[in-house]
């Protein structure tokens, strides 16, 4: 039987990947998970998963954790600025352990994107391609759930602030992107391919606030700002400066289409339409 491993298995995306693999009737005993904390390890063991302890910074533990694994899903790390060296550790350890295939969650249009996160993803893609292992790049667009972070404030103030002008966004839910990862990890024919993964539907911020207004019955407007002013507004709202800089930059450069794709590659891969942002908002507001 093929042995799979999912890194970042306790994260929001990782948990959904495990659920998607289960829905494809892959026994939990065939799925290994990389975890850092003993508490998380105990919970996953109780569900029947093959738990391997380790993190992206310890190559010795990674080589041991990857022993016997054939197909590995590398979910990108969350430490901005540290991701590339951590990912390189995973790649070199996977090769040393005899892993045959790596699927990696990259960034939409990573090669050309001007979003600040792109270089770390490009560096990781290059390292995987140079490793000699079979691979697939899952270039994930923005999560639809990202747009919910400001929803309480939008509903309270009746305004949504941003720096995107009339840029188009085509986000996808974590569940849809997790389903794509599970498809690629558990089936053949994806080797050497790069998938640009975005939602079927797109919207501008004006469209977005219009949908919120429709669902809430409140008047909502979009307030467009220069990138620097938006960054200041985010830091003033309590966001750490690096995160505020990242979000304001992503908004500003999205005018050039870095968070938009209309190829419908994602829905083709998972075999069903992606979840519209209206449904995401409706569920969030109902809860």
Layout of strands and helices, then pairs:
Elements lengths: L3 E3 L5 H12 L7 E5 L2 H9 L3 E4 L5 H7 L5 E4 L8 H15 L3 E7 L10 H13 L3 E7 L10 H7 L1 E4 L11 H13 L6 E5 L7 H12 L4 E4 L2 H10 L4 H13 L11 H6 L6 H10 L1
Parallel strand pairs: 1-2, 1-4, 2-3, 4-5, 5-6, 6-8, 7-9
What structural class is derived from the secondary structure elements? Answer: alpha/beta
**What is the CATH superfamily classification of the domain at 4-139 and 173-197 and 261-270?**
NAD(P)-binding Rossmann-like Domain
Q: Unreliable stretches, pLDDT < 50, 5 or more residues?
A: none
CATH class of the domain at 4-139 and 173-197 and 261-270: Alpha Beta
Mean pLDDT value: 95
Order of helices and strands: EHEHEHEHEHEHEHEHEHHHH
Side by side, the strands of the main sheet go: 3-2-1-4-5-6-8
Rg result: 19 Å
Q: In total, how many beta strands?
A: 9
Give the CATH architecture of the domain at 4-139 and 173-197 and 261-270.
3-Layer(aba) Sandwich
Overview of the molecule:
By secondary structure, this protein is of the alpha/beta class. It has a domain of 171 residues: Rossmann fold (3-Layer(aba) Sandwich). 44% of the residues lie in helices and 15% in strands. Helix 2 links the parallel strand 2 and strand 3. The longest helix is centred in the first third of the chain and has 15 residues.
